[in-house]
Amino acid sequence: MLYWRTQQDSRNYAILSDWGNDYGPQDFLGMEGARDIDQSKLQFRFDKQRPLPIGDFVATSIRSGFFARREVFELFGAIILQSRHKFYAAKTDKYDIEIYVPMDEVDGFDFLTSSYEKYDDGSISRIFELKLKNGFSTELDIFRMNDPVVARFDIIVSDNFKNIYDSNKLTGLRFAAA
Q1: Residue 131 neighbours by CB under 8 Å, 6+ apart
Q2: How far apart are CA 109 and CA 41, in angstroms?
Q3: What is the pLDDT of residues 87-129, one digit of tens each?
Q4: What is the pTM of this model?
């Protein structure tokens, strides 16, 4: 089975801006120092400076989750629900959305074949090309890497997820083979 690193398609689709909340990816993922999410404060508005179409999956500054309407998530059925995850309800200036945050982390990042940039202390600051170890396999269809820390913000999906995305002609995500 192939796995895919997902990225928000903010070049071709509208972006959501925070509107009254300051939660970051670490809060949604429950990382060290994370704050509890108050769903009543999850309000966003679409960037009016860039009048682009709105994708089925909506781009935001928060990379650790998928933002979409409930109907989009329902297309994925059990694939969305099989793994550990959190759902949050949020409002935008256009319609209500849900935020899906996958919580399963797996080991499999290939440090030798991935392309990345390092800080002076040797830790990875940014990943250009995320590759999985040769022979990598998991029963999960949606997950995150547990190491390096910066890879925890990337969402990796299986062919099963990508096939549903493609067959329903959904928009808003880009996929790179992992």
Answers
A1: 109, 110, 113, 114, 178
A2: 34
A3: 999 999 999 999 999 999 999 999 999 999 989 998 888 899 9
A4: 0.88
